[in-house]
Amino acid sequence: MKTRDRIIEAAAALLDSGGEAAVTLRAVGHACGISHNAPYKHFEDRSALLAAVAIRDCVTLSDSFEKLGKERLKPLAKLEKALQVLSQYGRDYPHRYQLLFSDRDIAMQEGELQRAAMAAFSALAELVGECQAGKVLPRVPTVELAGLLYASVHGLIDLQASGRMKTEKGFKDVRHGITLLLRVLSMGSASTGAK
Amino acid sequence: MKTRDRIIEAAAALLDSGGEAAVTLRAVGHACGISHNAPYKHFEDRSALLAAVAIRDCVTLSDSFEKLGKERLKPLAKLEKALQVLSQYGRDYPHRYQLLFSDRDIAMQEGELQRAAMAAFSALAELVGECQAGKVLPRVPTVELAGLLYASVHGLIDLQASGRMKTEKGFKDVRHGITLLLRVLSMGSASTGAK
DNA sequence: ACCTGAACACCGTTCAAGT
DNA sequence: ACCTGAACACCGTTCAAGT
């Protein structure tokens, strides 16, 4: 495995176990058996290294969504499955989720990350469009509905990832929230609703 | 003004202008005309100071929600106004918003912050309940609907605060997203819907 | 009770030097 | 092309000492 990839992997592992603050170049270097400033030969600076971690995960997610689009399932089932993939990622790797979907500095990165993020969104929007065609989601502009749906699910996942998902606030878990969301949304489209 | 409050204010100002990384005890001390370790006489550590900033804002928001509940307006108008107050806060102070509603370490704080956050949520849930009684929101358990609504709006605001609200992804602004959300939700309740 | 200055361990980043 | 060690400026935190 190339040094560059080993550095990314070490950074991801440190991020998972101790949060962003734990991703120090010294710890990364030590985990890879290199000096603390060797990473500078592979990445511009610390922020570029974190971006590389985010890009790797974003590409993985985007691929999952595209694969899901080709499965032979009902549109709504496909959409629900895609959203569960996202929420599973948020549950398993809360720090990486927040880096990819909630971090301000990461969002400023241009280029590769933007492209990967847009690809993921487009794959999701396509699934939403199929649901509308099948009359299981309301007939409002597709991109807008996809954006709103994505924002809502992001809200649920981020609430959990940040440790704010309390039962007193009406939350059981993200999966339950997504199911409720789709049910309430589909109520406004056709007679598919109920229970 | 007490030194303690001046420290909080200085921290909030630094947070607004340069993000969390800019809130160094040295900068805070300098802004207050005291030494860089004087804040330790008022707060346990840096994280407790940040928590104090979050608590102050949370109490302000909670008060706003309570006041809104007493206004003479239609339930849905009250609810929409409350959500706009929240989104306005997110637009004006994105770093403070993310500290209060997206930061992991802040969420771990017990006591005062938890109480303020719960009070804010309860005030919101009450408005949701009024809407359901007025048949403009679907008849699902009130806390669950309030939780879902809060999560969705949080998702919209956080997307904007983190710099991810791109028009290609179907977003105009948070206000527009909230309106769309309430419209789609109310479609599934009674004949109030349409356009 | 509140503040200061010096000190410590830790960090990102730079740079001259090595293979 | 890739790596190292020393150095720099900057942190949070602690502590003895001052009023």
Question: What's the count of strands of chain A?
Answer: 0
Low-confidence stretches of chain A: 191-195
Work out the oligomeric state of the chains in this entry.
homodimer
Q: Indicate the CATH topology of the largest domain in chain A.
A: Tetracycline Repressor, domain 2
Categorize the overall geometry of chain A: elongated
CATH-level-2 architecture of the largest domain in chain A: Orthogonal Bundle
Helix content of chain A: 55-70%
Helix-strand sequence of chain A: HHHHHHHHH
Instruction: Classify the secondary structure makeup of chain A into a structural class.
Output: mainly alpha
Number of domains of chain A: 2
List the helices and strands and how they pair.
2 copies of one chain form a homodimer.
Chain A: H1 3-18, H2 25-32, H3 46-69, H4 75-92, H5 94-102, H6 104-108, H7 112-133, H8 142-161, H9 174-187
Helix pairs in contact in A: 1-2, 1-3, 3-4, 3-5, 3-7, 4-5, 4-7, 4-8, 4-9, 5-8, 7-8, 8-9
The first copy, chain A, binds a DNA duplex (19 and 19 nucleotides) through loops.
Please sum up the structure shown.
The structure is a homodimer of 195-residue chains. Chain A has 195 residues and is mainly α.
How does this model look, in words?
- The structure is a homodimer of 195-residue chains.
- The radius of gyration of chain A is 19 Å and the shape is elongated.
- By secondary structure, chain A is an all-alpha fold.
- In chain A, helix 3 (46-69) packs antiparallel against helix 4 and helix 7 (112-133) crosses helix 8 (142-161).
- Chain A has helices spanning 3-18, 25-32, 46-69, 75-92, 94-102, 104-108, 112-133, 142-161, 174-187.
- Chains A and B meet through helix 5, helix 6, helix 7, helix 8 and helix 9 of A and helix 5, helix 6, helix 7, helix 8 and helix 9 of B.
- Chain A binds a DNA duplex (19 and 19 nucleotides) through residues 3, 24-26, 34-38, 40-42, 45-46.
